[in-house]
Design goal:
heterodimer; A: alpha/beta; Amidase signature (AS) enzymes; eleven-stranded mixed β-sheet; 11 strands; 35% helix; B: two-stranded antiparallel ribbon; 2 strands; 34% helix; flat
């Protein structure tokens, strides 16, 4: 049994009829972790379970192991957000998504590395990757399984890399400005950011509360649908979760897109887009035309403002959310003479450079005298971006675009210039600002053999439409069958 | 942004920064704010600010007593504690 050839679906089906096979599956995954995680370094907390009891159950994910990003609270497992300030923090409760996985019969297999507090697009800001914290199989940041000199993307870089490398069947990540989709595109896997409110955020350590969503990363579209239907749904513990029934996404997958109208936003095919990505994404549009869908050009006129809006709204929310890390109740506390000094020192020592940068920026834009010029104005522009999508979805069912402007880049290539790093989320941020669902799925490879991602966006709560189109595309192409050599 | 004052913002943020860090962040944030300034090119005269994706309602719950061990677990990871309290350094300066 080779772990990388398994799917969530195949494991689930096997365990339904032969629960005792859980031992073989866990061994296969463990062998794969031992063989490649020293090179990929996706996991910051992995231990092979000492005893595995077969579960005789018809639950939808009975016995299935899932890997989880380290900003999702897991009772009894360290949850650190890859930050020194949360070193040794063990939450006394589970995030709702973890409770939902448990209720479906699944269990947490490992915790995945990430950019510190999910601030980043390369997973290089992790305190583990920077060598400040220990817990990884190898020294250094998470590597891209397709080219170990390249980043896996971020911030859910560990979640994307473990799925790509075959050390996980499926993983959960979180997406505030592209943190599921951009690493999914860099690592050649399927990553879904659901509609804002579709999945409970309770127990997700907050970054930008009006933008954050948890979502699945998998090797196939079907696996993704199976995992999302397990974690989605209303939660009384998250007042922004939406009380709407969860469709059985995996039951609606069919190779039928003839009734779909797909829009290509011309503002996404502009200067800065890597020509190989443009070629692959346009070829993907042709695949849909060949399958019978209608592809038309559309306008999203406020697109160019999405990145500046994000770097006001997201950092403002982040600066407020991260005020809670002060060394009082949990996490790391610096030695200090008095309380004020304790706050300053604990935060000065505990936070990495990108976290400090964003807290400072967010604090400034919210400070007296600047609120109207930055935050209020950004929230108005955000509404215009949302209206662009509302109008577009009056005409089309889906929007097809690149996920990222480039394939995976090399370590250190963008770390010295924060703005150039931020630009790698230029195509993913608009969906978070509007709150619509969006997915990245493999649609090709660069001439250097690096994966290219296709982004599909849909109207609110139309995840089903994305899954249907993505499944049809996947079945018509063979990108999802390729595996990194490692 | 000539009026970006790193000392003031670091004070508001409750983050201790070295002199080198202050210099670095001041320069970087100046550049980022310069980029963000393109928002001024967008006509917002007819736009309402967006605070939420959907209309949100307050969620009310009946008060209910549920057994919980959470407070014991929470204190288990406290950096410093005394009894059932979190312990912090002296707050008010002066004689004991």
């Amino acid at each position: 049994m080779t772990a990388i050839e398994l799917t969530l679906r195949s494991v689930r089906d096997q365990l339904h009829t032969h629960p005792e096979k859980i031992t073989d599956i866990v061994s296969a995954l463990d062998q794969r972790v031992q063989a490649v995680d020293g090179k990929v370094r996706a996991y910051i907390n992995y231990k092979k379970p000492s005893t595995i009891s077969p579960i005789q159950s018809k639950l939808s994910l009975a016995g299935v192991p899932i890997s989880v990003k380290d900003n999702i609270c897991t009772e009894g497992w360290d949850t650190t957000c890859a930050s020194l300030i949360l070193q040794g923090h063990v939450p006394p409760y589970n995030a709702t998504v973890i409770e939902k996985l448990k209720a479906a019969g699944a269990w947490v297999f490992a915790k995945c590395d990430m950019d510190e507090f999910a601030f980043g697009s390369s997973t290089e800001t992790s305190a583990y990757g920077r060598g400040q914290m220990k817990g990884k199989a190898g020294q250094g940041p998470v590597a891209n399984p397709w080219n170990l000199d390249c980043v896996p993307g971020g911030s859910s870089g560990g979640s994307a890399a473990c799925v790509s490398a075959g050390t996980a069947l499926a993983a959960l990540g979180s997406d505030t400005g592209g943190s599921i989709r951009q690493p999914a595109s860099f690592c050649g896997v399927v990553g879904m950011k659901p509609t804002y409110g579709r999945v409970s955020r309770f127990g997700l350590i907050a970054f930008g509360s009006s933008l954050d969503q948890i979502g699945p990363l998998t090797r196939t579209v079907e696996d993704n649908a199976i995992l999302l239907e397990a974690i989605a749904g209303y939660d009384i513990k998250d007042s922004t979760s939406v009380n709407q029934p969860v469709p059985t996404y995996s039951q609606h997958l069919k190779k039928e897109v003839k009734d779909l109208k797909i829009g290509l936003p011309k503002e996404y095919f502009v200067k800065g887009l890597n020509p190989e990505i443009e070629k692959s994404v346009r070829a993907a549009a042709t695949v849909f035309t060949d399958l019978g869908a209608q592809v038309v050009e559309i306008d999203l006129p406020h697109t160019r403002f999405a990145l500046p809006v994000y770097y006001v709204v997201a950092v403002a929310e982040a600066s407020s959310n991260l005020a809670r890390f002060d060394g009082v109740e949990y996490g790391r506390r610096a030695k200090a003479e008095n309380l004020a000094q304790m706050y300053f020192q604990s935060r000065g020592e505990g936070f990495g450079a990108e976290v400090k940068r964003r807290i400072l920026l967010g604090t400034f834009t919210l400070s007296a005298g600047y609120y109207d010029a930055y935050y209020l104005r950004a929230q108005k522009v955000r509404n215009l971006i949302k209206q662009d999508f509302v109008k577009a979805f009056e005409k089309v069912d889906l929007i097809l675009a690149p996920t990222a402007p480039t394939p995976a880049f090399r370590f250190g290539e963008k770390t010295s210039d924060p703005l150039s790093m931020y630009l790698s989320d230029i195509y993913t941020i608009p969906a978070n600002l509007a709150g619509i669902p969006a997915m990245s799925l493999p649609c090709g490879f660069s001439s250097y053999g690096l994966p290219i991602g296709l982004q599909l966006m849909a109207n609110y709560f139309k995840e089903e439409t994305i899954y249907r189109a993505a499944y049809a595309f996947e079945q018509a192409t063979d990108y999802h069958t390729k595996r990194p050599a490692l | 942004m000539s009026d970006f004052n790193i000392d003031y913002v670091a004070e508001l943020s409750r983050i201790a920064l070295s002199a080198d860090e202050k210099k670095k962040y001041a320069a970087e944030l100046d550049k980022i704010l310069g980029y963000v300034a393109q928002l001024n090119e967008c006509d917002v005269s007819k736009a309402e600010p967006m605070s939420h994706v959907f209309d949100v309602e307050d969620v009310f719950k009946e008060d209910q007593v549920i057994p919980s061990e959470a407070f014991k677990l929470i204190l288990k990871h406290a950096p410093a504690k005394e009894g059932t309290y979190f312990k912090v350094p002296k707050i008010i300066e002066g004689s004991e």
